[in-house]
Amino acid sequence: MDNPKVQEILEKQVLTVVKAVEEKLDEEIATLDRLDSDDLEVLRERRLQQMKKMAEKRSRWISLGHGEYSEIPAEKDFFSIVKASEHVVCHFYRENWPCKVMDKHLSILAKQHIETRFVKIQAEKSPFLAEKLKIVVLPTLALIKNAKVDDYVVGFDELGGTDDFSTEELEERLAKSQVILYEGESSSLNASKSGTRRNVRQSARADSSDSE
């Protein structure tokens, strides 16, 4: 750089940043140094307990059918399933292309989000549930928390209005309703599509989905 004063200023700024980083590291090292063997043992025990609880949770989830995307055989079984798991995503479907698209994505997410139960039920064979939950358009996802339907994803309206949405887009939509745990950042697609999306509870439906 030609200007020696500018060069000097930049060097001072770099040194300031480096010094701040070093001080932070020194502080963290000092904190670790102050921990005696008893403190370390407490931390280790706490971590082991956390790991044990998580292992127990995973074991319970798997025993309830978490980790796979399964079909509810009969309407009456719906109630015992949603009571057994804290978070459930239930796909009301019929044998059509839009529902098969949804099946593909839910099969992937079921394996990725073992904390949530992913199931599907044939709407035409579940007239009581379809009427009670006001299921009109298929596919519809009922997002259930603590045995109560908390939200819906109706058709593909909130997924871009077409059947070529990604698994990540559906994942982000489910995370928005907090029915799955998700640590990823929202994609920029959300902003561009927000103007065309409608509320999941509105009667307007996606062109790519069928009504019963």
Low-confidence stretches: 186-209
Order of helices and strands: HHEHEHEHEEEHHE
Determine the mean pLDDT: 83
Measured between the Cα atoms of the first and last residue, the distance is: 71 Å
Our estimate of the beta-strand percent is 15-25%
Question: What is the approximate shape?
Answer: elongated
Taking all Cα atoms into account, the compactness measure Rg is 25 Å
How many helices? The count is 7
Strand order of the largest sheet: 1-3-2-5-6
Structural class: alpha/beta
- Count the E strands: 7
Let me know the largest β-sheet. 5 strands, mixed
Proportion of helical residues: 40-55%
Any key phrases for this structure?
alpha/beta, 212 residues, 7 strands, 16% strand, two-stranded antiparallel ribbon, elongated, 49% helix
Show the helix and strand layout:
Layout: H1 4-34, H2 37-63, E1 69-71, H3 77-84, E2 87-93, H4 97-112, E3 117-122, H5 127-132, E4 137-138, E5 140-145, E6 148-154, H6 167-176, H7 189-193, E7 210-211
Parallel strand pairs: 1-3, 2-3
Antiparallel strand pairs: 2-5, 4-7, 5-6
Molecular structure report:
The chain is an alpha/beta fold and 212 residues long. 49% of the residues lie in helices and 16% in strands. It has helices at 4-34, 37-63, 77-84, 97-112, 127-132, 167-176, 189-193, and strands at 69-71, 87-93, 117-122, 137-138, 140-145, 148-154, 210-211.
Condensed summary:
The protein has helices spanning 4-34, 37-63, 77-84, 97-112, 127-132, 167-176, 189-193, and strands spanning 69-71, 87-93, 117-122, 137-138, 140-145, 148-154, 210-211. The protein has 212 residues and is of the alpha/beta class.
